[in-house]
Amino acid sequence: MISLGFHDPDLPPYRCVVLGRRRILDLPLIAWLTVVWVLLWGNLSWANVLNGVLVAVVLCLVFPLPVVDLRLRLHPLGIARLAVCLLADMYSSGVKVARQMFDSRPYRAAVLAVPLRCRSDLMLTATAVAVSNVPDGSVVEVRRSNATLFVHILEADDPEAADRARRSVWRMEELIVRAFGDHEEIDRVRAAPRPGGGGR
User: Fold this and answer.
1) Do 128 and 139 form a contact (C-beta atoms < 8 A)?
2) Phi first, then psi: what are they for 56, rounded to 5°?
3) How does pLDDT run across 88-102, given as a tens digit for each residue?
4) Is the distance from CB of 116 to CB of 173 less than 8 angstroms?
5) Quick one: how many helices (H) and strands (E) in the chain?
6) Nearest-CA neighbor of 130 among 171, 162, 166, 161?
7) In percent, how much of the chain has pLDDT > 70?
8) How many C-beta atoms lie closer than 10 Å to residue 54's C-beta?
């Protein structure tokens, strides 16, 4: 018997129950394990993908995990928009960093506190990872208590650099939430970002 989490109010979404109610398959976990399997083999083929799914299902059945609702929701349009923006940001920021390496003038660095609107640990972590993946940004600290990222920036002597950095982090936060957040988090990022948060 298989029951999907979409139709079972006792289950978080993207889970299904097999073998009565003794085993729960976490579909996002299976997808992630399949990606890891394909990456380990280094060859994207139907055989590797199917073998990865099979191995992931067996692992989830043999080593079951407790049910934890991460409040993860998949929004295909938001995921596509996030992927495009991440690639564009990585390219433009990479060019900017390369230009700074060959520039002889000194740069004054600073650490900027950027308060976020989202509150879930998943969205906070995903935003920090996405910001750190862009060459021009580096998260040096995440303060969970007040949902604040501390971002290392160059060109701190430019009065507009801090504002640009904050807007960039808030934009990435909104993209992340619109790709993976629930309705409550999406409502939060519709509001204007909180002012404040100085450098240090």
Assistant:
1) yes
2) -65, -45
3) 888 888 787 777 777
4) yes
5) 6, 6
6) 171
7) 82
8) 13
Q: Residue for token digits 């989830």?
A: 60
Question: How far, in Å, CA of 21 to CA of 92, rounded?
Answer: 50
| Helix intervals (H) in 71-182 | 76-101, 121-133, 159-180
- Identity of the residue numbered 191: A
Half-sphere exposure of 187 (CA within 13 A, CB side): 3
Residues 6+ apart with CB under 8 A from 35: 52
Q: Which amino acid is at 197?
A: G
**Which residues, at least 6 apart from 21, have a Cβ–Cβ distance to it below 8 Å?**
none
pLDDT along the chain (200 residues), means of 10: 48 61 73 87 87 91 71 85 89 79 76 89 88 79 90 78 88 92 89 66
Q: Taken in order 36, 39, 44, 48, is the CA torsion positive or negative?
A: negative
Structure tokens at 157: 């002597």
pLDDT of residue 165: 87
Q: Which of 86, 146, 153, 74 is closest to 117 using CA atoms? A: 146
